[in-house]
Amino acid sequence: MIITRTPYRISFFGGGTDHPAWYREHGGKVLATTFDKYCYISLRTLPPFFDHKYRIVYSVIESVKKLEEIQHPSVQEILKYFNLDEGLEIHHDGDLPARSGLGSSSAFTVGLLNAMNALSEKNSDSFNLAKTAIHVEQNLIKEHVGSQDQISAAYGGFNEIGFHQDGSFSLQPTTISKNRLYDLNSHLMLFYTGISRFSSEIAQSQIANMGNCFNQMNELFDMVDEGSSILRNLNVPLDDFGKLLHKSWIIKRSLSKKITNSIIDELYASTLSSGAIGGKLLGAGGGGFILFFVKPENQDELKKALPTLTYVPFNFENTGSQIVVNQPNGF
């Protein structure tokens, strides 16, 4: 039995510039962190007593005899990639809902790759985990997804991630004091809207409109350095980070009509009148989780203003995908 634990991520600035359609021509950059909510993948070779060869348990249960019958796209492509002959049982458990803007799909892909590497006794360093996950999602599954989620899931931590025209990426852990990071964490509130969506569909509409949003995309790119500068400079009020989040959201929502809707817009407006300084929908948009920057003394008021939303306390983390159990099961 092998069990991996892979963190979800929060992307602050630069989202959209991590899509190959953009950074292959212009370069890209994001500021993002992982936090202490996780995707768990358990994997074992299947004992030879069943009619099926593969059993995959997630929001549905698949029991199939052939690899080609597997419906979960990431599972099918990863098992093809490793080309193993054994029967396998795979279970997915997540601390938070899927399709919610926290990089859950990539956390699943990275976690399963990590588990398969352990089963195959292959190297599982962060760079290769991220690179292979990007290959699986963009080239094998052919999803319209960016490249930041896989890297955050593999490495963990609070990072600036650069995307280069040759297709490579670079990662720079942010040089921010622990006290500043603690203060930032204490000003952030995460809520679940209850709206599930497929990020690749929203991202596809955004990609199709990138040619008409050159100035906005460059502004989002520049906000990465601006956000990092605010956090590093202790003489700059932390509230400026929240104001920058607000500015980023105003720009992001202009990139595609699918990024927001009247419900989200009304919700966001109500939070600004209840003490929030800024915020944004996480991921591609359309629903899922929404993040707000709120002074600690105003947070109770904000909770009261959002009685139908689920509040999720969290802390930053820096572990990345980990193998937490690796025990032979005897088959």
How are the secondary structure elements laid out?
Blueprint: E1 2-13, H1 20-26, E2 28-45, E3 54-57, E4 61-64, H2 73-82, E5 88-94, H3 104-120, H4 126-140, H5 148-155, E6 158-163, E7 169-173, H6 178-186, E8 188-192, H7 199-208, H8 214-232, H9 239-252, H10 262-272, E9 276-281, E10 289-294, H11 299-305, E11 310-311, E12 316-317, E13 322-326
Parallel strand pairs: 3-5
Antiparallel strand pairs: 1-2, 1-13, 2-5, 2-6, 2-12, 3-4, 6-7, 8-10, 8-11, 9-10
Helix pairs in contact: 2-3, 3-4, 3-5, 4-5, 8-9
What does this structure look like?
This protein has 331 residues and is an alpha+beta fold. The protein has 2 domains: 2-174 and 317-326, 2-Layer Sandwich (Ribosomal Protein S5, domain 2), CATH 3.30.230; 178-314, 2-Layer Sandwich (Alpha-Beta Plaits), CATH 3.30.70. It has helices at 20-26, 73-82, 104-120, 126-140, 148-155, 178-186, 199-208, 214-232, 239-252, 262-272, 299-305; strands spanning 2-13, 28-45, 54-57, 61-64, 88-94, 158-163, 169-173, 188-192, 276-281, 289-294, 310-311, 316-317, 322-326. The strands form 2 sheets. Strands 1, 2, 3, 4, 5, 6, 7, 12 and 13 form a 9-stranded mixed beta sheet that branches. The model has no long low-confidence stretch (mean pLDDT 91).
